[in-house]
Structures are given as C-alpha cells and as structure tokens.
Amino acid sequence: MLHSDTKNTLVNLSESAAFSSESLSNFMDNGFPTNKWEEWKYASLKSFNDVNWSWTPQAISEEVAVPSFQQGLSIQTLNGRTSLVGDLPTGLTCVPLNQFLVQNQAFKALYEKRNPLLDQNSLYHLNDAFNQNPLVFCVHKHTNLEASIVHQYIVEAQSAPTVIQGKIILYLEEGAQLTWIEQQASLSSKSLVFSNYALEIWLSEHAQLTLYKDQDLGQGISLVDHTFIYQAANSQVDLFTFSINGTYVRNNLHFYIEGPHVVSNLNGLYVPGEGQLMDNHSVVDHRMPHSESNELYKGVLLGNATGVFNGKIFVRKDAQKTNAFQSCKNVLASDRATMNTKPQLEIWADDVKCSHGTTTGQLSEEALFYMRSRGISADAARTLLLLAFVQQVIDKVGISSLRDYLSSKIIQKIEQSWEA
After folding, report:
1. Which of the residues 21, 23, 106, 169 could staple to 129 if both were Cys, CB 3.0 to 4.6 A apart?
2. What average pLDDT does the segment 110-139 reach?
3. What is the Cα–Cα distance from 150 to 242, expressed in whole angstroms?
4. How far is residue 209's CA from residue 202's CA, in Å, rounded to a whole number?
5. pTM as predicted
6. E strands within 258-401?
7. How high is the pLDDT of residue 72?
C-alpha cells in the first residue's frame, strides 16, 4: 500500500483539471510494482510504497551543456520542464498534444485507438496522470532530417525524495526520416529520485526512425522508461538502448507492428555495476504479415549487479510470413553478479520463422591465460575481452561521435570496477 501522506497528496491532485483522475486512480489502486507481480518479479519497487514522495520537482537552476555529439536541435527536459535549445529545422513542428489533435485528424484517429498495455504497469498510468498535454514533435511528409535531434532528460532532487515525470510524443508522417537521441542523465542529488518517463512514437507508411538511448544516471537515481512504438506498413525502426549507470533502470519497450513489410531492429547493451539493477522488458507484437523483427541484447554484469531480460514476441494469426529473432547474451564479470532471463514466443500463425535464445556465462579462463602469457595485466585482459564481447552492439551506432562517446563511457565503467 502507498504511504498515507502520498495517498492524501495524490487524492488532492486528482481534483485538479490538469491531472487525469482515472489514470491516477489506477495507480493508487495498485501502487508501485512488487515482486508479487509476474512482470516485476526480479525488479520490485515495493519499498517505494513506503516513501513520502514530493510530486512537485524543483526547477533546475544550473545550466546544462549540450552534448559533444549534438548535430542539430537540442531539447532539454529538466526535472520535467521542456524547452528548446536552438531553432526547429524545416519540416519539424512542435506543439502541445491538445492543439495537435485539433490540427491533425489523421493522428487523432490513431491516438484515440491506442493499444492496451500488455503487462502490469501501474507506472505508465502514473505518468499518464501527470502528462495530459505533452509536446508532440511531428516530422512532415517526405522530410529527411539529416541532422540528429538530441533530447536531454535531466533529473535532480536536493531537499526531499522526488518523483519526476515527463512525456514526449513523436509522429513521423509518410516517408519521413528522423534520428532521435535520448540522453537520460542526472545532476548531483542529495535525495532519492524516481524518474518516470514515457516516449510514444507513431510511424506512418515508409517512415524511418533511428532511436538512441543513453542512460547514465547517478547512484540514488531510479529510472523507469516506457517506450511505445506503432509502425505502419513499410516503416523501419532501428533502436539502440545503452544502459550504463543508475541504481535502478527499467526499460519497458513495446513495438506494435500494424502493417505489412515492417522492419523492427532492437539493440541493447547494459553494464550494471555494484549496487545496480538493470531490467529490459520488450514486447514485439506482430499483427500483420511479411514483417521482421530482430532483437540483440548484450549485458556485462560487474560487482554484485543484477540484470533482467524479459523479451516477448507475439505473432498473431494474420501475421503470416513473419520473421522474428531474439538473442540475449550476458557475461558475469564477477561471481557476485546475477542475471535473470526469460525469452518468450507466442505464435498463432503457421507460416513463420521465429527463434529466441539466451546465454549467460563468464570470461574464458583459457583466453585470459593466453593474454596474461603475452604480458597483458589481468585487469587489461578482462577489459579487452569484455569490450570484444560488446563491440557487436557498439559498432552498429551510425554516428561516429556518439559511438566514440558511448564506447569511452563503457570502457571507463569497466575499468573502474576493477579498482573497487
């Protein structure tokens, strides 16, 4: 049950027109997920029910620098407040959802028939309650935005345990192309932070999206990221999720394949360290024929880290000629680390190609011995072997400056673990 003060605060908020009372009620009825919920068995947030949270984050006064890999527009969401750094490029508009629904009837029809959630997720209801009129970024028909867009989602809390929430909507019209980089980070914080973020994306026919997520948060920061992607015919999404730091990081990723000849590529790399938990939950829902999905996730677990991977693939009756592949591979770099995996396939069609598999192991003692015999130190040898293991995911990053940036952070994280 929720803390009594938290419940009273939420009851008062539900009376405001700015909040969705229905969504808030759904959250209050269930509270934060516990290990009794099957989908949260290894990533319980039960202790958060006992925290007296602040629901009004203080504004961040510190100036946040744009990242070195920035190519075009930078968008900053600082403790839930979003602003633009620079001018919108031609072919990209940004308006609040309520206004966009009036202006774009085609999108309104899509938005109003959003699919129900496929797992137990009270936290999405909580996010929805606080984000009734988020910003919509629309890439216009046949527009190719060659320069990537960076969204910096930054959190901090100084005086009290704080819940920080945000939501962004992306809509790509027919034939539009976009590269979007999510940088999720934190400033130095003195108090507990729970960050609850949602990204909802619609791709029209022949649209293409490349989406990068860089999750690098401080200790004491917990992040739950909800990403929902709806794909129409002949669209393609290439997704990369890099989870590098954070006390608790949970990614809820849902793909809804709603047209034929759709391609969905999901890539993930997570490097939890001492006192950290990283959980990747994915759902790929094939609803139409001749579609393809490819999942490649790799994890390096350091110290006493905990990792979770739960990947579901649904192939509906009408989704004939579907190709769906899923792979999750992990290395326990410490005998104190733990990895929990659960790949799942549910198939109702009879003319498909589907596979899933997961492996968890340790570094090869034979390879370590060989490298040590060539004069390489034990720590350097372990680092090189781990980098070789994760390079398959890193090499897929199409922006060289971003690839170098991510690679250097991962190397630093691994090297620092040997010093602990």
Report:
1. 23
2. 89
3. 15
4. 10
5. 0.96
6. 263-270, 277-286, 292-301, 306-315, 323-332, 338-347, 353-361
7. 87
